[in-house]
């Protein structure tokens, strides 16, 4: 049997203090769920969390507010400091709904990294997720209490109320920039979607008449990505930036992009109107898409222009927070009283990483305590570089595997002889503290 060595970076990658701060944030997410559960979300028979129509609108507004934070707070800071990972000043810490969107985004390291390169270089000023800065604002009753200067700074920078409005009123509006003529206009949240509740954006441009939708935004992004790749001034289409190892390869991204453009007959995209691009994108034959081995279209047309559905990510993390709550881990006394358990989870995470390295498969599902340490590591500034320095690639995190699959993997895995090397006697540590 091969010798399995604990990854060396684990010695300093995640501390008990990091996990304690993260658990406090999960406590906040859980108490937020408690509020949302009255009207915004529900569980189906498989214990999966779904948004109601009110919930969809709430999540969409949070993603909108997250993008405003990038543009109005991070961008000026980035222009001043450059990509120096300076981190946030206390007054720049956003409202909790925005912090939760960032949290969900960072838990998809591959999407987060490639969107930082391709769309939002401002995100580089973050020095990881502001774990302690956010945790310090959360009381033992799991209420988020911002500082006055934080509220003032947010409201004067964005024009949005600090506290996310739980319920949208018919008078609530937001700003739309037409992706075709760049005209900026105001639209009502409750009218600007095909069902009046935020599902799919649908606001007619008051200048050129284009129906502004998530898809028309996506098509405009597709055009600008393609044009920049052709002229050599940008990387390439979403989904082509990173190699399988998660390493940025700009030349490969650009040539892959041009190949895609030729295959789908959109190489001369600048000669087409946005409407024509949309209808061409919608009519690409299946077999052509299949031949491309990357589902690049799935990255275009999501709320806010991100290449990942952030609202859905927030909901999945809400589900995870609920598990942490039911196991007693979000109890504010837990990290101090049970520091040995956290210590053990950290070493179990090292075991999980070693197995992942061995299998080179990112879809293996760890037990919840290990998952918590993994999530915490992903929020740290060096997650990607920790991996790349040691292994030359990094482990992406997929949190939407079916629960049954996760359960099976977990059991199979943690009873495997390999893990005996790490002293893993208990298949699922949660069992030890359940029922608190
Ligand atoms: Zn327009």
Could you characterize what this model shows?
With 436 residues, the protein is mainly alpha-helical. The protein has two domains: 7-177 and 310-391, no CATH class; 185-306 and 412-434, no CATH class. Helices cover 50% and strands 5% of the residues. The protein is built from 19 helices and six strands. The protein has a two-stranded antiparallel ribbon with strand order 1-2. A hairpin with a 5-residue loop joins β1 (41-43) and β2. The protein is globular and about 65 Å long. Residues 401-436 have low confidence and may be disordered. It binds zinc ion (ZN).
Report low-confidence residues grouped into runs of 5 or more.
401-436
Give the averaged pLDDT, no decimals.
84
Percent range for β-strand residues: 5-15%
Number of strands: 6
What small ligands are held by the chains?
zinc ion
> What level of helicity do the residues show?
40-55%
Secondary structure tally, helices? 19
Structural class: mainly alpha
What spatial form do the alpha-carbon principal axes imply? globular
Query: How big is the Rg?
Result: 22 Å
Order of helices and strands: HHEEHHHHHEEEEHHHHHHHHHHHH
Largest sheet: 2 strands, antiparallel
What can be said about this structure in brief?
By secondary structure, the protein is mostly helical. It is built from 19 helices and six strands.
């Amino acid at each position: 049997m091969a010798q399995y060595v604990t990854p060396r970076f684990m010695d300093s990658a995640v501390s008990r203090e990091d996990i304690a701060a993260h658990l406090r944030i999960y406590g906040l997410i859980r108490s937020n769920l408690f509020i949302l559960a009255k009207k915004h979300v529900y569980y189906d028979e498989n214990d999966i969390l779904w948004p109601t129509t009110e919930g969809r609108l709430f999540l969409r507004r949070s993603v909108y507010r997250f993008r405003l934070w990038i543009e109005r707070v991070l961008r000026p800071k980035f222009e001043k400091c450059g990509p120096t990972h300076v981190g946030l000043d206390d007054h720049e810490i956003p409202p909790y709904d925005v912090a939760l969107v960032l949290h969900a985004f960072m838990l998809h390291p591959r999407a987060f990294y490639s969107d930082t390169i391709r769309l939002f270089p401002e995100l580089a000023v973050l020095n990881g997720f502001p774990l302690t800065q956010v945790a310090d604002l959360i009381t033992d009753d799991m209420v988020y209490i911002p500082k006055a200067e934080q509220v003032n700074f947010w409201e004067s920078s964005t024009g949005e109320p600090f506290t996310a409005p739980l319920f949208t009123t018919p008078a609530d509006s937001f700003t739309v920039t037409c992706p075709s003529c760049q005209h900026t206009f105001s639209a009502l949240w409750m009218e600007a979607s095909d069902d009046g509740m935020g599902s799919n954006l649908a606001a007619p441009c008051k200048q050129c008449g284009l129906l502004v939708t998530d898809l028309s935004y996506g098509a405009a992004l597709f055009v600008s990505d393609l044009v920049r790749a052709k002229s050599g001034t940008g990387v390439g289409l979403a989904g082509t930036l990173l190699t399988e190892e998660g390493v940025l390869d700009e030349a490969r991204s650009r040539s892959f992009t041009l190949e895609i453009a030729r295959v789908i007959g959109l190489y001369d995209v600048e000669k087409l109107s946005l409407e024509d691009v949309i209808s061409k994108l919608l009519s690409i034959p299946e077999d052509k898409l299949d031949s491309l081995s990357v589902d690049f279209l799935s990255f275009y047309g999501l709320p806010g222009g991100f290449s990942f559905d952030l609202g859905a990510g927030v909901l999945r993390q809400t589900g995870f927070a609920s598990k942490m709550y039911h196991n007693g881990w979000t109890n504010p006394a837990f990290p101090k009283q049970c520091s040995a358990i956290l210590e053990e989870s950290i070493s179990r995470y090292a075991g999980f990483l070693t197995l992942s390295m061995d299998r080179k498969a990112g879809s293996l599902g760890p037990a919840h305590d290990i998952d918590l340490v993994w999530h915490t590591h992903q929020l740290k500034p060096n997650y990607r570089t920790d991996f790349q320095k040691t292994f030359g690639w990094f482990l992406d995190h997929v949190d939407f595997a079916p629960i049954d699959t996760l359960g099976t993997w977990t059991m199979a895995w943690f009873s495997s002889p390999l893990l005996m090397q790490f002293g893993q006697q208990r298949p699922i540590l949660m069992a030890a503290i359940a029922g608190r």
